[in-house]
Design goal:
The protein has a domain of about 50 residues. The chain has three helices and ten strands, in the order αββββββββββαα. Strand 2 and strand 3 form a beta hairpin. The longest helix has 22 residues. The radius of gyration is 36 Å and the shape is elongated.
């Protein structure tokens, strides 16, 4: 009786743990997209308690709010749309005929019943026709706030950031990384994704819905390049 009770308690604990794990985030944050903190000054700034000007609350009159330092935040406007289509058609044909006359023996053809018996000929034909079509279309729109992680010597900014949204029993992630020019940052501190050099844009998800929408490992093996048939 005690053994059965212990078994039931253990099963209940495992079930509760599995349920809790399903409620947690299915996608974890990628350390490669972690924000970078701005460098701290070597010495704390001097305190200025003047009545007309204070360095901590000063407003720069000749610079806007666009990102230009490590740790600054700007918004990436995703405007990705790609369309690709490929068509290929190949047709080949080849016909060959070879005839070998019958040899002669002592100046006379070798015949049987009045017909040459050693005369040979070969006839061959080969045809091939192939057609192929491929089309792909992708679209991604939205916004994502990223941080400046590096300022290059020429003034270009390396940016990266991610967003993870948990929805019911699943989650979705959006990651962006690349290099931008300060001149491409608009007045509202945003930059379109088409202006990002060496852009890395990733969108995906995980959880119960993503698992249900994914084929099993055996089906993926049969559809992979390793299945020879």
């Amino acid at each position: 009786m005690r053994r059965a009770l212990k078994t039931l308690v253990l099963l209940a604990a495992l079930t509760a743990q599995a349920a809790c794990s399903q409620m947690g985030p299915a996608v974890r944050s990628d350390p490669a997209y972690a924000p970078v903190e701005p460098p701290m000054p070597a010495a704390p700034p001097a305190q200025n308690n003047g009545s007309l000007y204070h360095s901590d609350s000063a407003v720069e009159l000749f610079r806007d709010a666009r990102a230009y330092r490590v740790g600054d935040i700007l918004t990436v406007t995703l405007q990705e749309a790609t369309d690709a289509e490929t068509r290929a058609s190949t047709t080949t044909a080849k016909t060959s005929t070879t005839t070998l006359g019958g040899p002669s023996l002592f100046g006379l053809p070798v015949t049987y019943g009045g017909n040459e018996i050693l005369e040979n000929f070969a006839d061959g034909a080969r045809d091939f026709a192939g057609n192929g079509n491929s089309a792909q279309s992708n679209s991604l729109e939205g916004e994502l706030s990223v941080t400046v992680v590096q300022v290059y010597a020429n003034g270009n900014l390396a940016i990266r950031g991610e967003k993870i949204i948990g929805i019911n029993q699943g989650s979705e992630f959006l990651r962006v990384a690349g290099i931008i020019r300060p001149a491409d940052i608009q007045a509202d501190n945003s930059v379109p994704s088409s202006k990002i050099a060496n852009a890395r844009v990733s969108y995906g998800g995980g959880g119960a819905l993503a698992d249900a929408n994914t084929s099993g490992w055996l089906a993926r093996f049969f559809n992979s390049e390793y299945w020879p048939f």
